[in-house]
Amino acid sequence: MRRLGLLRTSLALVLVACGPGPGTPAPSAAPSAPAASQAAIASPAPAWTPGPRASGACAELPPLAFRAAQLLLVGIPGTAIAQTSRDLVRGGVGGIILYGPNIADAGQVRSLVAALQHEASVPLAIAVDEEPGRVARFATAGILPATPTARALGGRSAASIRSTARSIGRGLAGLGVTVDLAPVLDVTSATALGVIGDRSFGSDPAAVARAGTAFVEGLQAAGIAAVAKHFPGHGETTVDSHTSLPKVAASLATLRRRALPPFVAAIAAGVPAIMLGHLLVPSIDGSLPASLSPAVVHLLREDLGFKGLVMTDDLYMGALAARWDAGQAAEKAVAAGADMLILSAGTGALDVAGAIVDAVRGGRLAEKTVTDAFLRVERFKHVDRWAGCAP
After folding, report:
1. Per the confidence metrics, is the pTM higher than 0.85?
2. Which residue from 33, 124, 347, 391 has the least number of CB within 10 angstroms?
3. Active site residue: 186, 313, 314, 351, which one?
4. DSSP 324-389
């Protein structure tokens, strides 16, 4: 696989996604070099540095390799910026996702985020899973207050849910976080909680739509971008996509009646991003998981009218890893119409970006597809340099 300026390190296939199921470990933190030795390491030059913005409707685009790297939301080692993290940011990754091993205390998180942003030639998205309940990185670390589960919140008023989300959002903003990988909009079975369990607001589509919309509004009011997940609906599955590929046997008519209404409501409320789940849904696509499926993205964009950012769940999860390596999965995801791809272990991220570049040069992926995804990523991050180039 193509190298883009990084010495390749061994990559552990850590099966951690936007919100791990019970018992799923987070990526291990690689040991950081002592501060003195870090300072002695010569950092490579940034992969691309923006020059003065010329007048006109569309600013000059960065090189293809940088555009490809901007599509990646990656995990990093440790609680302080290390050479690996610095190289990833200078290489152009679009964002960083924080996990438990990156979090010690509030001051440390703010310092880490500030150091990462300092290295970036384009502002980074800083993301975290801070759902209500058990999948909440900062609440687990005692940095933010614990909240009731989504299942418990689902029975409360929209105003109460909105207030809870706004409080979470304000806490995240104070730490330098810009994106919350929440809310979960999966509708669970009325008879069994399945693998999603109490991360769901409930078993009634209308109730989940009401609660999910209120949660989105609360986060947005605090200046945090919400990411609704896991499209087209993970709620009634009993297989954990961290380990293998769940199959959703429902007909398209059933999906439209039960699984899709919360996403339709969130789109109407202006949710800026929706995450695709690693789910095989034969009524939409019988061969590819939703996260790699052009048919699923078509349903989301054309049938439901979603114009925002389409994100995948972690490409290292077992649902994909048994069949595709991260580079192959990334190529398929971008070809399907996904814009931003999660890589929980970021050490090989620039090689994944290289695989996207190779796919363009090999004629398997249109450069316009990469550029359109890049422009949606920048719009999602409120980077207005390329606003006149919007797809």
Report:
1. yes
2. 391
3. 313
4. --HHHHHHHHHHHT--EEEESSGGGHHHHHHHHHHHHHTTSS-HHHHHHHHHHHHHHTT-GGGGGG
